[in-house]
């Protein structure tokens, strides 16, 4: 018996002495049940949102979770109305373009700050890092004035421009490029690749998990963004899905089952993405959370 | 090109670095730093967006200091912070601590807790708003009525509205914090626990002497992250009270909503800018205090 095994044996013997096995199983089961109940409670709002979106108007105020006669009527009604379709496309385009921009620029800047030695490096790094301290709320007024004078109000560009690069993404990518060995870059340089090629073909493939984590954060953030799109848009055609949903819910004659349908349309895509890439997304969140 | 070829390797690197940084540096200067300066400048001006901009010195700040609505909003904002942060910290730690020790269907359980984080605040604000309605509409009151319990006024009550608005914000952020806590707990070397077990130490001592002290960086991160989130709360409040934003009687109005109202409904740009500067200062102080707490270990 190795010493490690001996330690484990002693410790489990000690544990067994403290808690009789029957008691321990009871405690474990109880823990599991309480956690499970809590987890079910956590998803209840989402479950009720989806359930209500599948109910006929006369059943909406019943507290039952499973609709008696499920119907897609609400979805058909909302989609026929056409606005949610439009807002969905707007949000999709804006979130996708912003994500691509962040992936390219944040990683390029992060890479440069990590792997190059040049005058002004510390200054640029500290400056970008300090933007993390400036809240969006402070910038919306100047951004609005800027959009007004350049004619960016009520346009995709107007919604997107503030988020095209982020200090958070840059910092995250810089952290991850630390793990790319300098030897790889040196070897590529000797092979005659230029710096742009080295970044794109050597360094970028090595930080794919970080890029994926960043993509999830940026996409989700832009898909759900509310304050700035609310300020910068003013025609129904340019609304993003949260801005549109907010106005839709506010129309007094709109029924709750239709509001729930709108809410479901805005939420279900991110939930599906999450269910498919679950492990991956949770790992990404931890990486981004701890390194960023 | 010939010029470039004559450069040393080091000089070439400098050229490349600044080529890569050119566009981003312009972006950060134009979209982040210049607007920061503009916001501070406007806060010393009086401007309704149409007329002339006039310098008024500290007038906006003095007006803010004497504005009873501002102090109400200030108290609300800190109420969100002081209730929301400890509540979500304790809940997420309890969940993470126990979830970490669950083996059976671990992934599924983790998914249940994390799912709300993937939702949009606006959508969920409307779902919760529906929950809070009176009988026969709202889910909560319908359930209460089913048990024959008296109705609760949620969003129409000046005392209940703020916690009612805060609840979905806490709910949505919990999953993220649970995941971060679990990662923190996993990162603690098991040898500490084994040593403790050999010494026959109880679970309470293990929790307070090993787990919590070693989780300190995780705790500070979560506190900073959620504090900033609660100080900037807007989406939930706005969407749950669209008929009377921040109401009833400003009972739920946070600073960001006051800023939005002042700037984009009253078009009092100078006054709104002064409010944003105050918010910025508060956020800065909170982050600096908490970072200092982290350093002092």
> Looking at the structure, what is the overall shape of chain B?
flat
- Derived from helix and strand composition plus strand pairing, the structural class of chain A reads mainly alpha
Q: Please write the string of helix (H) and strand (E) elements of chain B.
A: HHEEHHHHHHHHHHHH
Helix content of chain A: over 70%
Number of strands of chain A: 0
Could you walk me through the main structural features you see in this protein, from its secondary elements to its overall organization?
The complex is a heterodimer of chains A (292) and B (297). With 292 residues, chain A is an all-alpha fold. Chain A folds into 2 domains: 3-71, no CATH class; 78-291, Orthogonal Bundle (MetI-like fold). Chain A has helices spanning 3-18, 21-53, 73-81, 83-115, 121-130, 136-150, 156-160, 167-177, 182-190, 195-206, 208-224, 227-232, 241-250, 256-276, 278-291. Chain A is globular, with a radius of gyration of 26 Å. Chain A starts with a helix and ends with a helix. The mean pLDDT of chain A is 87. The model of chain B has no long low-confidence stretch (mean pLDDT 90). The longest helix of chain B is centred in the first third of the chain and has 34 residues, at 9-42. Chain B has a two-stranded antiparallel sheet with strand order 1-2. Chain B folds into 2 domains: 2-42, no CATH class; 67-295, MetI-like (MetI-like fold). By secondary structure, chain B is mostly helical. Helix content of chain B is 71%, strand content 1%.
